[in-house]
């Protein structure tokens, strides 16, 4: 459905130039602090993980160091599982769900897997509650060689340097009301396109890989999460955010074609979680718990497969 909403920055039908990007960047505000809400939690996990700095964002290197949590008992004979959060910095439970998993549940799986957890890939986006980075680039459409996104480039470089095959990747995200009220209209304006309104699904869903869908794996994630929060229903066209529902709570995307984070490796198993924090049925703790349940559901499935 076409929407008459006109984004306040730019001229309809014209792509943004550096002028509009600068205007957009000036309109953002710091609303919370990475250094107060995320970095201390990472530091507190140093007794359970090796805390490894893999870079820093040039926007303010001292303010935005980038860290992963890496299994202390690393063994290249074990499968390696990557967990990422905060690729879109505004998606809060992706960040804090990853940290909560690391703190409360990861110990149950470290004998079976090498774990690499990147809890906040986009700290500038975290602070400004934004989908993009300061250059109006979406990190989650930028996972390709010579990426224009520092956020994507830094984590890709680190993962490649591990020099191990990534067996599975769980990428923690949210779908929010602001996707339709702010971020998709901004995207259309940036690219000089018309904005067509879509609906926001009420509930949790996952995005699998069109090329390697692994339906049993996705179903295991859904079964685990539904113990914590509700699963998004399909709309009247049997879609979720415009894509066909392939099984309850699951859609598929061509991850590499879209340059998505969950497609940055050639892993056999991948899933992108989507929590809906704006539902009146949930609170922040439930959203974090849903992300934890998604990771544990995925790992329990993989553990059973590898017996």
Give your account of this protein's structure:
The protein is an alpha/beta fold and 307 residues long. The protein has a single domain (18-305), classed as 3-Layer(aba) Sandwich (Aminopeptidase). The chain contains 9 helices and 10 strands. It has helices at residues 18-26, 34-37, 39-44, 92-104, 123-128, 150-161, 178-190, 215-225, 284-305, and strands spanning 49-56, 65-71, 80-85, 114-118, 166-174, 205-209, 239-240, 243-244, 250-253, 269-275. It has an 8-stranded mixed beta sheet. A two-stranded antiparallel ribbon has the order 7-8. Strand 1 (49-56) and strand 2 form a beta hairpin. Helix 4 packs across helix 9 (284-305) and helix 8 (215-225) crosses helix 9 (284-305). The protein is globular and about 55 Å long.
Please give a quick description of this structure.
Helices cover 31% and strands 18% of the residues. By secondary structure, the chain is of the alpha/beta class.
């Amino acid at each position: 459905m076409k929407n008459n909403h006109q984004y306040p920055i730019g001229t309809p039908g014209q792509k943004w130039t550096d002028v509009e990007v600068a205007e957009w960047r000036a309109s953002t505000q710091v609303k919370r602090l990475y250094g107060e809400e995320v970095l201390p939690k990472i530091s507190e996990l140093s007794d359970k993980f090796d805390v490894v700095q893999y870079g820093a964002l040039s926007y303010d290197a001292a303010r935005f160091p980038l860290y992963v949590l890496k299994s202390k008992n690393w063994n290249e004979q074990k499968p390696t599982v990557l967990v990422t959060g905060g690729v879109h910095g505004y998606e809060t439970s992706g960040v804090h769900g990853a940290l909560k998993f690391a703190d409360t549940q990861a110990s149950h799986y470290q004998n079976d897997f090498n774990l690499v957890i990147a809890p906040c890939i986009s700290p500038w986006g975290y602070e400004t509650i934004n989908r993009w980075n300061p250059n109006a680039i979406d990190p989650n459409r930028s996972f390709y060689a010579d990426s224009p996104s520092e956020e994507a480039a830094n984590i890709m470089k680190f993962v490649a340097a591990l020099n191990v095959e990534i067996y599975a990747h769980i990428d923690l995200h949210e779908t929010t009301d602001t996707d339709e009220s702010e971020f998709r209209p901004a995207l259309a304006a940036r690219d000089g396109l018309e904005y067509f309104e879509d609906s926001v699904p009420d509930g949790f869903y996952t995005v699998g890989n069109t090329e390697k869908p692994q339906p049993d794996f996705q179903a295991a994630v859904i079964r685990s999460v539904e113990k914590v929060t509700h699963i998004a229903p399909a709309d009247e066209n049997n879609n979720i955010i415009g894509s066909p529902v392939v099984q309850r709570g699951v859609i598929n995307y061509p991850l590499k074609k879209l340059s998505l984070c969950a497609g940055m490796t050639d892993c056999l198993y991948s899933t992108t979680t989507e929590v809906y924090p704006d539902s009146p049925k949930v609170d922040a703790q439930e959203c974090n718990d849903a992300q934890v349940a998604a990771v544990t559901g995925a790992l329990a499935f993989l553990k059973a497969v590898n017996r």
